[in-house]
Amino acid sequence: MSVDSKKSASNGQEKMLLSQEQQALINEVRKLIGPQSGKASIFCSDACISRYLRARNWNVKKAVKMLKLTLKWREEYKPEEIRWEDIAHEAETGKIYRTNYIDKHGRTVLVMRPSRQNSKSTKGQIKYLVYCMENAILNLPPEQEQMVWLIDFQGFNMSHISIKVTRETAHVLQEHYPERLGLAILYNAPKFFEPFFTMVKPLLETKTYNKVKFGYSDDQNTKKIMEDLFDFDHLESAFGGNDDTGFDINRYAERMKEDDKKTYSLWTRENSPPSVPNLALSLDSTRLESDTDASDSEKIDSSPDLVMDTGIINPDQKSLVNEGEKNASADIH
After folding, report:
1. What is the pLDDT of residues 210-255, one digit of tens each?
2. In a domain, 276, yes or no
3. Is this model's pTM higher than 0.85 or not?
4. What's the start-to-end Cα distance of the chain, in Å?
5. Residue 49 placed within a domain
6. Contact 303, 284 (CB under 8 A)
7. 29 part of a folded domain
8. Which alpha helices (H) appear in the chain, and where do they start and end?
9. Which domain holds residue 226?
10. How many domains, the chain?
11. Which of 25, 98, 105, 281 has an alpha carbon within 20 to 30 A of 138's alpha carbon?
């Protein structure tokens, strides 16, 4: 089944409109999960349900199962109730933070610096990651529902690797934040990181793995990709940009405290889901597939992302391997 689309005059991207078939599947999921109230009703917008359907190739049964598990997780974990004071100690070094700029496709940007890890608590690290995810989603502009991760490997060594944290991170992101990741750029990853990444691959679903790109500061193709993605006057110098301001924990804390107020306002509304960025709908042009015979545990591939030309840089040759097609909507999963 195809998706109707129309051209956006403002940015040249295609805005995807819900087809009758897609809306019917969304309605079916809504019927099967049953009536929701409070925060669950706000969470379960059509946009949200469509992300779960896309994450499971429009298989209603699998999408319902996945969504129900997330609703249970959110009820118990209460990610929308995490506040700055709960995780401020984890944020002190700037190991993860939301930038004050977006990319040229309107996606919020999270910077990650694993060498600045300051905690041995898996629980604390995951709680801070969840806080950052919720904050990035809160700050998505209209008609964009995905984000970009920029991962800076400067100063990284083997002591910063944790299989336990990596496994838990992959689980939380893939199961409870599907279709949220547009692109993850691993910038200047050292050679010894490759075997670890190979080992991690089985933890990642195919479409998640395909969104991870390697970039290098001495590679011209990487520079071209970064220029296509970002305004260099805003991009940090660590990623080849012109901004050398650096991370300031005090200024960042003030931003997050203000965002906590917006978070409270959003999740205390118990009526129909408000029209805010994190509930915006941006369907991709993947054909609908029921695929009812596929197992629930299978790795699910997706059609190529349609937001931009990207490629994975081979760590051995430091050369760009073009993946071909443009992506209009990249996903967390």
Report:
1. 999 999 999 999 999 999 999 999 999 999 999 999 999 999 999 9
2. no
3. no
4. 22
5. no
6. yes
7. no
8. 20-33, 38-43, 46-55, 60-77, 84-91, 122-138, 163-176, 193-200, 206-209, 220-229, 249-267
9. 80-260+306-322
10. 1
11. 25
